[in-house]
Fold this sequence. Notes:
Elements: H1 13-26, H2 53-186, H3 192-203
Helix pairs in contact: 2-3
Amino acid sequence: MQTDATADPAANPGKAVAAEGGEAVTGRPVTPAQTVQQPEHQGGLPQFRTEYWAGQIIWLVILFAALYLLLSRVFVPRLRRVRDEREQAIGGAIEEARRVRAEADAQAAAAKAEMAEARAKAQAQAADAKARAAAESAERHRAQEAELAQKLAAAEDRIRASRDAAMGSVQAVASETAAAIVEKLTGQGASPAELDAALASSRA
């Protein structure tokens, strides 16, 4: 034989309380059939039930405050520090690049000036060497001309001496030839004075 669950107050305290409330209101004992049936669980999500909104709002405020504190005290300072460090690193790199570029420009200008100075010095040395070479060439030319003039004078002296010697020989031969001709034509020999006078008049 099964017992009725509604009849046992210990088995269903809610129904027992409802029965006691009904008896207190009406002043009459409440039968099990008149007991209000209370559902043990209501359907739907708790988030959409108004009796839970107050707790949800409190927890939302707490979570928002905790999240705000975490962001403002932990994450945002770290992000700001990382950003500042990155900006400093980028700025330092830019300054270093500018410094290196300025040094490179200065070195390029110095190298350009050195090249211009070396080019001017080389041109001056080339002009000096050319002038010295021209002077040495002119000096050698003058020396060669003087030597050639001396050689020409000596040759002319030798030629003059040879000519004079040849002319003396020719005159002796002519005198001898003229004396022989005169002796053969006249049968008498001519004196040397007469032969020289005759040769001189013939040359004139």
